Amino acid sequence: MREFTGKIVFITGGGGGIGAGIAQAFAERGARIILADIQNTFAEEEAAKLPAAAEAQVITLDVRSLESWSAAREKVERQLGAVDILCNNAGISNGFKPLADVAPDEFDRLMAINVTGVYNGVRTFMPSMVARGSGHIVNTSSMNGLTPFGSFAAYSASKFAVLGLSDALREELAPSGVGVSTLFPGLTRSRMAEKDAGGATGQDEKRLLAIRANMMEPIWLGRAVVRAVENDEPYIITHPEYRAGLVARQERILAAFGEPAQPGYKTGSSATKVE
Ligand SMILES: NC(=O)c1ccc[n+]([C@@H]2O[C@H](COP(=O)([O-])OP(=O)(O)OC[C@H]3O[C@@H](n4cnc5c(N)ncnc54)[C@H](O)[C@@H]3O)[C@@H](O)[C@H]2O)c1
Known about the structure:
Elements: E1 8-12, H1 17-28, E2 32-37, H2 40-48, E3 57-60, H3 66-79, E4 85-88, H4 104-132, E5 135-140, H5 153-173, E6 178-184, H6 191-199, H7 202-212, H8 218-231, E7 235-237, H9 243-255
Parallel strand pairs: 1-2, 1-4, 2-3, 4-5, 5-6, 6-7
Helix pairs in contact: 1-8, 3-4, 4-5, 6-7
């Protein structure tokens, strides 16, 4: 998608740091913006900062509920028209803690918002994009969706799920002309990041307090998202400092590929895709 003037961009978690950054960046390019959030007050504050041409609207949405998504879609389509770009960005973290300390309902809530919320968004807006043969979906994962670290297992699991969903969906939708991109933020200024940095202890605390002074400003992530949609790029990486960790992890995975576990097994027979 090359031209954004007048396009309708629907951003979940639009009242949060990164969602607001994405909103500002699309508004800079003349798009119309819908900030969807479970917290209206945050979204109203961000909407007030956008230029008049963005015709910013706030919609109350709980990404966990398909009914809530349905009501949001009906409202947008009645008032503005079809959504051109969907940013499934709402997400929560449950702070740094060992997985043993994550309660079952806490795990379920994290998955419901971070993973089912993305599925619900796709389910709501994808059919009309496919029918029109145009549109773009941007899903927010995390660097923790590429290189997990201890004390963040549940969150990492949710963000790996976003990557898997997005990669597969990108392949599925390619023939229809609908693009899919995944955003992998590193530490970025937002309420979530401030809270996580504040809650860390010991070595984590020292490391995070040091990084805290240098959190990336969300507008730059937003501008990277706009460029990725413009060029239909699959991955949006904004924090290059995580590269070495990812390379090391990929090398460890590749090193585990060797001879088939079963002697005489014909390799390739079960691969669905050979490149
Ligand atoms: N800030 C970072 O350093 C960082 C790093 C990696 C990934 N991320 C991801 O970026 C995304 C945005 O996070 P952020 O850092 O801007 O945090 P944030 O807390 O500022 O914003 C998240 C927004 O999502 C909203 N939200 C929460 N639950 C919701 C629900 N059920 N339905 C609708 N909205 C809901 C919140 O009200 C909030 O406004 C998240 O998916 C997060 O996991 C953030």
